[in-house]
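Worked example (supplementary).
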Amino acid sequence: MSYTKRNDGRKFEETREIKAEVGVIKNAQGSAKFQIGETIAVAGVYGPRNLYPKFLQDPEKGVLRCNYNMFSFSVDDRIRPGPSRRSREISLVTQRSLAPAVNLNEFPNAVVDVFVEIIQADAGTRCAGICAASMALADAGIPMKDLVAAVGVGKVGDKIVVDLDKFEEDYEGGASDMPIAMLPRNNEISLLQLDGELDVKEVKEALEMGKKACENILEIQRKALKDKYKGGK
Amino acid sequence: MAKLLVKNKDLVVPGEVLVEGMEYLPAGNVFRDKDKIIANTIGLVSIDNRLIKLIPLTGFYTPKKDDVVIGKVENITFSSWFMDIGCSNLAMLSLKEATSEYIERGADLGKFYNFNDVVVARVINVTKDGSIDLSMKGPGLMKLSNGRVVNVTPSKVPRVIGKQGSMISMIKEKTGCKMTVGQNGKIWIQGPDPKNEKKAVDAIKLIEEYSATDGLTEKVEVLLK
Amino acid sequence: MISKEYLISILDKKTRVDGRKLEDYRKVEVEYDISKNAEGSSKVRIGDTEVMAGIKLEVGTPYPDSPDEGTIIVGAEFLPISNPEFESGPPSIASVELSRVVDRGIRESKALDFKKLCIVEGEKIWMVLIDIYVMNDDGNLQDAAALAALAALSKAKMPKYDVESGKINYKEKDGKLPLEKMPVECSLAKIGEHILVDPGIEEEGLLDARLTVASVGKEVNALQKGGNGTLSIDDVDKMLKLAVEKNADNLKKVKK
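After joint prediction of all chains, the assembly is encoded as:
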């Protein structure tokens, strides 16, 4: 089925409008908000701090722990509060997306906790969460070799597109969703998942489009970080 | 020929390339990736000859030998105290380092330093796996009765102290408060009146917020007027 | 970080750690529509304490003893993002207490007309699900949660419901919730001999006794005494008078 024009008028390689802000949770050592279209994620970082139970500790390097949580009212059909199989898997892939960027060697036996809260959802929540979390880690002063930018790419009808919204995810002509995260400096991929049907060529094409979008996202993340530290919000 | 991509005092964030080429050397809070030098935290660029480093604007406390820190008693064992000094592990104060007084075996150690007591102590040893030893022996090291403790980002401690202690002296003088600044970002304040203490707290918060800007001393002066 | 003795010595001088007077409430701010898929939502700040609340409506079956009445279900999550002491996992007893006190404030004041939430008597009713999320804990989550719940209720729109098909259309709205009264909650602390309004997080950690008062005008609808210390009759009387006054102030922050 031919998808000739996007529902909200965007170009196929264009993300929705992005807003980012650093320092949104006073108690957290680092925190950030990342909004892409109608999806809003807030992330907070605590640590390095003591890790219990003790058997989880690593005497050689610190542990990065992530928790992804959707607010019950973030979607039309209320989600029962507390962890689900879906949220646990996303917590895991969020951790893996961020781990390659974080230098954990400086705090053996300790843990850095990252909490991602989805306040409002319109597809792309895990990627928004990763973008917020990466800014929150930098804000907390955890040593990092790069920021992490993430975006959904995929296919709607017959078109490869960037940043699918809920309408596109549910498109009646079929949609494939491929969330990715990158360390943009060296174009290293740290998240790659796919739901749907893409051929080998399309995966490559989607990744190239995603790479460009991640470069844009990186600029927004950097600006938001600098805005906080320029001094005096 | 090396290409320097930043200037002194530029604000950078993790992953930003500071230099291309091998002529510069990475110092603190930066690292080399092939021919590039990269920032690993949020900070201000500092170029000294061929050395490039960052003055960090955020970060957690990493204890170092000889740091003077403010801690709180979290646990007492039969031969030592464990103190929260604001890092992931509790720091240990052994009997030997606690006092020059003779302590009998089995004595109640809470008589010397009790739960929730606040002390100024010195870090005397840090091991690779993160064990920290403290000492109370030395000038100015003591239990702090009364007063309150506020926290600042540890990387901002030098700004709170100021050049040759100018900033902290000014706050002490203008508010009449006694203050002790720990390298771990914990600051103890005791004043003649709660209002004076509040003023000192406000001054510290102002320094923390505006630490990367010029004219910090003037801003603090205005607040303390 | 402060000791109890020192805190009391500050209170003796009729002032508080953060410079407030004993009967002063912190600055209260209310924001609406923070989450568009909720039927109503809000964010409340009390000083640096920040709480979000959202309302979802679902269709359920009534309790046999009240076949023509809808109901409310209040839940609260003390998110670990909001306080380094909070852990991930099942709701803590403190969050259960908080949500039950919010529930009682709304239920006992008859803030919502439950009869108007009945769709088909004995068969179908509206369930109003109020979920509260703590974003930053700087003390007195109880009052922030109650105010956030009220603010979210005040702006909530009912979704369209088709009795025939049994389907809820969340995209189409069908009027406001039957919110008849506006209950507000005020918490007070007793520390030593002092009574103070809206305890901050350090005061909360050192208090002897706490009292939360939910009221509408001069009617008190729910009380919850907390802390391990006790209160005298005179303490309670003084606290109630202060609470009624503060609740009237904070009600002005909520648009109906």
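Two points are worth noting when inspecting this output. Chain C touches chain B at residues 1-3, 5-6, 9-10, 13, 15-19 (CB under 8 Å). The longest helix of chain C spans residues 233-251.
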